[in-house]
Specification:
206 residues, alpha+beta, RNA Polymerase Alpha Subunit, Chain A, domain 2, 4-stranded mixed β-sheet, disordered C terminus, ribonucleoprotein, ribosomal protein, Ribosomal_bL25_C, rRNA-binding, Ribosomal_bL25_long
Length: 206
């Protein structure tokens, strides 16, 4: 489990969120059912590094001024242009109680025919925090046009309950997109014009 170091956020004119961000901090909040909202700050570089090493849907250790909390990343706010994290919300959890979260669906391989398309990018689950998988991976090797992969086809580890219907489609194999009749006709006309132009030029030379 990845650890994130934080500090209680000091109050005052010199500690505005803009000032914190300029100095490499991300303003954040940690909260839970047994604690009030606490305004904290975490180092932007350290937070980025932790999120690269571990999926955001898994639990983290948040250490704030010597106090350690088991938390989930509830929300990350990013700058609309640069994409850097400008605020983070952490929710305190109990590692012995089930949590609800979502797990991404990933594809590997290539169909025999057609193109595999993700219909659902995430699947909702319920389990103990320590059992959360980073993703569900589906191999589409050998599939053909018209084939589908259902939720029921997932390999689900023990202790995980799915929050979606087993008959829902995750992946569908579709035909390669054909050219429209208009584009085919336009291409044919262009070829005819080119041929006619070539014939005219050749007759001029003769």
């Amino acid at each position: 489990m990845e650890a994130i170091q934080g500090q209680m956020r000091a109050q005052g004119m010199g500690n505005s969120v803009k000032s914190l961000r300029r100095n490499g901090w991300v303003p954040a909040i940690v909260y839970g059912s047994d604690m009030s909202n606490q305004e904290i700050q975490v180092q932007a570089k350290e937070l980025d590094a932790a999120l690269r090493r571990q999926a955001t849907n898994k639990p983290y250790k948040l250490v704030v001024d010597g106090n350690t909390y088991d938390v989930m990343v509830n929300e990350l706010q990013r700058h609309p242009i640069g994409g850097v994290i400008i605020h983070a919300d952490f929710k305190k959890i109990n590692m012995n109680e089930k949590v609800h979260t979502s797990v991404p669906v990933l594809m590997t391989g290539d169909p025999e025919l057609g193109v595999a398309t993700l219909v659902r990018h995430n699947v909702d689950i319920s389990c103990l925090p320590g059992n959360i998988p980073e993703s569900f991976t589906v191999n589409v090797d050998g599939l053909n046009i018209g084939d589908v992969v259902l939720v029921s086809d997932l390999v689900v580890p023990p202790g995980i309950e799915l929050g979606v219907d087993a008959t829902e489609v995750l992946i569908s194999v579709l035909p390669v997109k054909a050219k429209s009749e208009e584009s085919i006709e336009a291409q044919h006309e262009a070829e005819q014009v080119a041929e006619a132009a070539g014939s005219t030029e050749q007759s001029k030379r003769v």
